[in-house]
Amino acid sequence: METQELRTLLESVQAGSVSLEDAMEQLRRLPFEDLGYAKVDHHRAVRTGYPEVIYCAGKTPEQIVGILRNMLARGTRNILGTRLSQEAFEKIAPELEGCPLQYDPLSRVLVVKREAVEMPETHILVATAGTSDMPVAEEAAITAETFGNKVERIYDVGVAGIHRLLSYTDRIMSANVVIAVAGMEGALPSVLGGLVDKPVIAVPTSVGYGANFGGLSALLTMINSCASGISVVNIDNGFGAGYLASMINRMPMQR
């Protein structure tokens, strides 16, 4: 149950169009529903403004379908699932025929979008150092879009050819939040942090050769950045970056 639906329910009780018993039956499903293999947090949207997100890695297709059906039946309008393999999606899709599923194989993100979300005028920019960083960047971008944000993408503008990045200076500076995605040595966020007067969310990726240590070198570079205004999420955590950027970008609408 999302915030607007809860408000509508309470107003219906107040107006007398819904009985107290019926309202109690609906509220009984809060704050979570136990499916045995998962406890679905239907109260999360009321607490945080965003419904629960399904982390699909490690879950069977049957479990994912069960969680999706439960959320849909309980009125969740838009649902996000991350780290869903192509193979799992092909098993899930026939079980949810008629449901508006959108799947992006690059980012491995599943979106169920049943309702448009009002968007702020400001936008989020997602930039990558290289083309190989795009799967993580797209996870961030699609997450932010699903939660109701305009997102602009600038890819393959790493510091190895910094003139590429500088050619987009006006577009970069017009963003309300910047997500910088980079592997290798992870220098891109520091450069962007020195260019913009808005928050920069740094995302280290596991892209790189052996001494990259699966993204650890990029993570340490970003944590040790001398540029101010940079926050850092975990390695390959595009979802976390997109979620945080959405919270920042939508703050004026949530006051």
TrEMBL record:
GO biological process: 'de novo' IMP biosynthetic process
Classification via InterPro entries: P2CMN_synthase_LarB, PurE_dom
Entry's Gene Ontology molecular function annotations: hydrolase activity
Domain PurE, chain residue ranges per copy: 122-254
UniProt-listed Pfam families: AIRC
Record's protein name: Nickel pincer cofactor biosynthesis protein LarB
Organism from which the protein derives: Luoshenia tenuis
